[in-house]
């Protein structure tokens, strides 16, 4: 199940209990079953903290939101220091292709959160975009800006 990802190495705390692998979430501060999607999510959180220098306190994992009366959860939401959502990250397992369905899912979340940046990742492929808030255009970008939360 554990496979190398196209992300920097993450110093994850792993533990095996009852023949299941668990990973420690530095955001939620608890052990979680290490599913393939969780493996990607935890690597991406470490990437945000250690390589993009985003404070842990500005990151939410499994952020709950209500979309048309249905409870949804965004994998990762990064907030600016003024608590405004600035980035939504949708994580998929490495064997899941990033396609129109995953784009639609993150677009639903952004309809509620109005983040300027979106990221889709399966740990191997990463798709980043910036939303132009004035005209609604979506522009592909190479990576998350370094000054994201300032």
Structural class: alpha+beta
Helical residues, percent: 10-25%
In DSSP terms (H or I, runs of 4 or more residues), the helix count works out at 2
SSE string, helices as H and strands as E: EEEHEEEHEEE
Cα distance spanning the termini: 37 Å
Alpha carbon gyration radius: 15 Å
CATH domain topology: Trna Endonuclease, Chain: A, domain 1
Write down how many β-strands occur, each being a DSSP E stretch of 2 or more residues: 9
Say what oligomer this is: single chain
Write the CATH architecture name. 3-Layer(aba) Sandwich
Outline the structure in words:
- The chain has 150 residues and is α+β, with helices and mostly antiparallel strands.
- The protein has one domain (14-141): Trna Endonuclease, Chain: A, domain 1 (3-Layer(aba) Sandwich).
- Helix content is 19%, strand content 37%.
- The chain contains two helices and nine strands, in the order βββαβββαβββ.
- It has helices spanning 36-50, 100-113; strands at 14-17, 20-25, 30-33, 59-67, 70-79, 85-91, 117-121, 126-131, 138-141.
- The strands form two sheets. Strands 4-5-6-7-8-9 form a six-stranded mixed sheet, sandwiched between helices. A three-stranded antiparallel sheet has the order 1-2-3, with helices on one face.
